[in-house]
Amino acid sequence: MSKTKAAGTTRLGRDSRSQRLGVKLFAGQIAKPGAIIIRQRGSKFLAGKNVRRGNDDTLYAIRNGVVKFTHKAKVRFDGNKRLAKVANVVPGSR
């Protein structure tokens, strides 16, 4: 007896859907309240002014304005420093 079926069976072909993470609104683009700026896992980017963090670490705008990215020195738990990227929404026109 054969150990495998005749034809048409395969153990390959399964693949998970991509998570579509990354920056959705870049610097200089206009953000409305609730607009997603960054989808991320963990805190690669930090929430700055007029930006909040969702349950899945997504950063979104809470006010109308223009997206702006800055850097900030952040102290880790072991005392070392890292340069963290901060997403801000600056109210007003370009």
Automatic annotation (TrEMBL):
Question: Membrane-spanning residues where?
Answer: none
Q: Name one Pfam family in it.
A: Ribosomal_L27
Q: Which UniProt keywords apply?
A: Ribonucleoprotein, Ribosomal protein
Which biological process, per GO, is one annotated for this protein?
A: translation
Q: Name one GO cellular component term.
A: ribosome
Q: Which GO terms describe its molecular function?
A: structural constituent of ribosome
Matching InterPro entries, A to Z? Ribosomal_bL27, Ribosomal_bL27_CS
State the family it belongs to: Belongs to the bacterial ribosomal protein bL27 family.
Put simply, this protein is called: Large ribosomal subunit protein bL27
Lineage, highest ranks first: Bacteria, Candidatus Portnoyibacteriota
